[in-house]
Amino acid sequence: MVRIDSSWAEKLAGVFASAEWERLADFVRHEYANELIFPPAGKIFAALDACPFDRVKVVIIGQDPYHGPGQANGLAFSVAPGVAIPPSLQNIFKEVSDDMGTPMPANGDLTRWAAQGVLLLNSSLTVKAGKPASHAGMGWEVMTDAAIKALSDGREHLVFLLWGAHAGKKSGLIDPSKHLILKAPHPSPLSAHRGFFGCRHFSRTNAYLKLHNVDPIIW
Q1: 167-176 long-range CB contacts below 8 Å, 24 or more apart?
Q2: Are 121 and 76 in contact (CB under 8 A)?
Q3: pLDDT of residue 1
Q4: Does the annotation mark 109 as catalytic?
Q5: What is the CA radius of gyration of the chain?
Q6: Neighbouring C-beta atoms of residue 218, cutoff 10 Å
Q7: Contacts for 162-166 with beta carbons within 8 Å, 24 or more apart?
Q8: By C-alpha distance, which of 101, 99, 142, 110 is closest to 123?
Q9: Is residue 39 within 8 Å of residue 72, measured between CB atoms?
Q10: What is the spatial distance between Cα 196 and Cα 200, in angstroms, rounded to a whole number?
Q11: Any idea what DSSP says for residue 131?
Q12: Active-site residue (options: 49, 64, 99, 109)
């Protein structure tokens, strides 16, 4: 059973009623029936289900789910307890530790972030096993872009963390007069040393939230 929080179902009703959505839904159903697709079907909308529209404080945008067995759980960058922490997430945790002076966490489960209002949203919500970006351009971006724009238009004083070129392109959907946009290279081992390390996005996020009388995130 696919779960999505009612607040998001309402905000994205126009997308869900569109012909584009019907085409995407048909494609995704066919893929799950005939291929190994991640995350498990019931967790496709886990990011939106875990973080209702009115509770979002921070948005972290990923590209697509992990494409290895047992990794993707519907939250961008997150893996379940007991799953090896992927390299990009290790680098995220390293920056959190250096920035906030906190110890490295024991596992890669980011549901604790989502529960505090961090929307961990991938641009594409599904992927074929072993084939990164295999569902990019199939229609997911229509929905995920609409979610980002709905937050920009309908909320204020949110923090958008855009890591890497792909996420950086989403800045055009966000009103910088109402929200804080922080950009850095992707935390991947290929690019983290180009400016992700030392970006201090986590302390800068909390400083902005506090400035606007919003409880900071316990990273």
Answers
A1: 167/61, 167/62, 167/63, 167/123, 170/61, 170/123, 170/145, 173/145, 173/148, 173/149, 174/148, 174/149
A2: yes
A3: 47
A4: no
A5: 17
A6: 11
A7: 162/61, 163/60, 163/61, 163/187, 163/196, 164/63, 164/188, 164/191, 166/63, 166/123
A8: 142
A9: yes
A10: 8
A11: B
A12: 64
Distances (CA, A) of 71 to 5, 31, 101, 129, 154: 23, 18, 27, 11, 32
Instruction: Give residue-wise pLDDT tens across range 53-78.
Output: 999 999 999 999 999 999 999 999 99
Distance between CA atoms of residues 17 and 92, nearest Å? 37
Is the confidence at residue 2, as pLDDT, over 80? no
- The model's pLDDT over 177-194, given as tens digits with 9 standing for 90+, comes to 999 999 999 999 999 999
SS3 159: strand
Determine which helix (DSSP H) or strand (DSSP E) holds 148, and give its type and residue range: helix 140-154
CB 21 within 8 A of CB 48: no
Tokens in use for 24? 């995407």
